Amino acid sequence: MPVPERSARGGWRFACVRGCTLCCRQPGFVYLTEQDVRRAARRLGLSAREFERRYVYRTPYTLRLRKPRRAACHFLSDSGCLLHPAKPTQCRLYPFWPEILEEPGGWRREADFCPGIGRGPRLTPRTVRRRLAAMKRAYPAQYS
Ligand code: SF4
Ligand code: SF4
Asked: How many helices (H) and strands (E) does the chain have?
C-alpha cells in the first residue's frame, strides 16, 4: 500500500502533546472493535457485557461509544482518558486515519488542529503504512 501523501517538509512526524485533549473534545463518534470493548471493560473492572450495556451502541455493522455526536467523550477526565492505556483503536491510531492520510492535503490540514503533528521523531513510510492498514483492518465497515 503506498503512503498516499508525503508531508511537504520534515517527513512524517507525530508525537502526542502531554496534557492536550483536543481530539477527545471534537464532535464525532468513537468507534470500537470487539477487542476494544473487552480491553476497556477490563480496564474499568467490568465484564464486557456490562461495559457494552452501559457505554456502547451496537448496530449490525459497527460498535461505538454511546455519546451524542456533539458531546465530549464521557471517558475524558481532567487527567486525560480514563481508559488509557486501553483506549479504543481509533483513538490510539489517530491521526493515521484514512480520511486524513488519503485526502489530498489532509495531513497538513490536520496539523492546524493537532499540535502533535510535526513533532517527535521522523516516522518511516513503513510505519505510516502499518498504522493506516491497522485502521482499515479494525473498522472494515467504514473503510471497505
Ligand atoms: S490533538 Fe493531537 S496532540 Fe492533542 S491529544 Fe489529540 S493527538 Fe495528542
Ligand atoms: S476514549 Fe479516551 S482517547 Fe478516546 S476520545 Fe474518549 S477520552 Fe479521548
From this structure: 7, 7
pTM of the model: 0.92
Kindly give the number of the ligand 2 atom that is closest to the alpha carbon of 90. Answer: 4
Q: Apex CA 47: angle with CA 43 and CA 53, to 5°? A: 105
Under a CB-based contact definition with an 8 Å cutoff, are residues 81 and 23 in contact? no
**Would you give the end-to-end CA distance of the chain in angstroms?**
14
Which pLDDT tens digit goes with each residue over 20-75?
999 999 889 999 999 999 999 999 999 999 999 999 999 999 999 998 888 889 89
Q: Which atom of ligand 2 is nearest to 40's Cα?
A: 1
Nearest CA to ligand 2 atom 2: 81
